Fold this sequence. Notes:
Layout: E1 2-5, E2 34-35, E3 38-41, E4 45-49, E5 53-55, E6 59-63, E7 68-71, E8 76-79, E9 87-91, E10 104-107, E11 110-112, E12 116-120, H1 139-143, E13 148-152, E14 155-157, E15 161-166, E16 170-174, E17 177-179, E18 183-188, E19 193-195, E20 198-200, E21 207-210, E22 216-218, E23 221-223, E24 230-233, E25 239-241, E26 244-246, E27 251-254, E28 281-284, E29 287-288, H2 289-292, E30 308-310, E31 313-315, E32 359-363, E33 368-369, E34 374-382, E35 395-400, H3 403-406, E36 410-412, E37 422-430, E38 436-446, E39 453-465
Parallel strand pairs: 1-4, 3-6, 4-7, 5-8, 6-9, 7-10, 8-11, 9-12, 10-13, 11-14, 12-15, 13-16, 14-17, 15-18, 16-19, 17-20, 18-21, 19-22, 20-23, 21-24, 22-25, 23-26, 24-27, 26-28, 33-39
Antiparallel strand pairs: 2-3, 28-29, 30-31, 32-34, 34-37, 35-36, 35-38, 38-39
Amino acid sequence: MNHTIVCAALCMTLFFLSPVHGSSLTFPPESGTYRGDYVLIDEPGRYTLENNITHAYPVGIIITSSSVILDGQGHFIRPATSNDPSVGIWVSLFDAHGKAITGVRLQNLTVQDEVTGIYLEGSDSSEFPWGRDHSSDPSISEMTSDRDITCSDSTITGSRIGFSSKDVKKPVLLSSRITGNEKGVFISEGTPEIRDLIIAENTGSGLHLEKTEGGVITGCRIEGNHGPGILLDHAEGIQIWNNILDNQVNIRNIASEGALLFQTLSNQTNIIKGPKTGGNLWAQGGIPVYAAQMIPDADQDGIGDIPYIDSGLIDQYPLIPAGTGFTPQMPDVPEPPVLTQTPAPVSTPFTIITGVHAVITGDSIPSAMQAGKSYQVNITLLNDGSDNWLDMHAVGIRALGDAATWGPAWLPVPSGIHSKQSYTIPFELTAPTKPGTYELMYQAVREGQGVSVTYGRPYKKVVTVN
């Protein structure tokens, strides 16, 4: 069955319901494939969008049937106003007969400026005024064990959460762009298949996996996200290989086991057009790790000769653009001594880094803190460059991730710090109210003269909050 969905220019005001929490909102609304400014799909079939959808109803497209293909044909879905909540596409947990919805395909869509771009409903959707909490029902997990939903060739931008999947056995994301959201992708439960995505410039985490089991992330560019590129949150056995990972924090691992950052080497073209697949290309702030750490590639085959470790996980085969890896130098064989008059010894000056440079050398941050308590701490920054720091250099320390929420995000250093001189910066940290183990990170940077320069790798401090 094929269906064409046409959104009329004039929408019926009968269905312009206020999306305010606590309102008496009927969801899903009356049956039928089109009512007002939203679309309701409650029968199996292939559907295509013929126009853009700008919805005043809290949800733009509602799917309450299995075996649905929705082809957006490049059209966009977005809210008429910035009300909360708003959802671009909602795929319900059950159909009208109480059966779990599966076999849904979403493709060629653009979702803009929603609170949640695409939402695959799980056992607990009570975060929405029309949602339900079925999590205490033991039969729900069995009923939803075979859900299979795929989204491909789509763009999601400007949303609080771009793509959210809950209790889907196999959520699949393919060949899509998820950029400029607060959180890019959130997947809870299931075995995700994530291929050929661009997840970039999201202000929180790029890809958050919670309580997933197995699955794969491959062929993706995960870069420029302000939070962790990949957040593994009690996620077991995910395979992460053949990706470009370029974030200040590429992977944050929270009680996740069995993650694998590579697959067996094979002679296949990788994501950076090299001749072999294996691990991932690693960078931080646009600076390739293979260059910063001088990872050798003696045979110049595009695979690093030593493993790379991130968040306690090991990439055995880090990718390097073929022909650019460092070649280990063999020690020089000394020439036979020549008997000549030995000149007077000359003292060699201490070698330092030329120009402006900085390195964090220590801190007084306690390794254990009490939840919610404030502490006076400090971090020491060393001028290890050849130049004295001036006002125009604007050298300081940038707090990353959790560190920016516990205390100030920017710790400036006064001018006039001479070469080889240290400066200790005092500030206050307030531990979060939730106990746990946290990793605080601080980065030495320069912000002056219209440029931002990152010095070295982030300085890390593990803190236990009791």
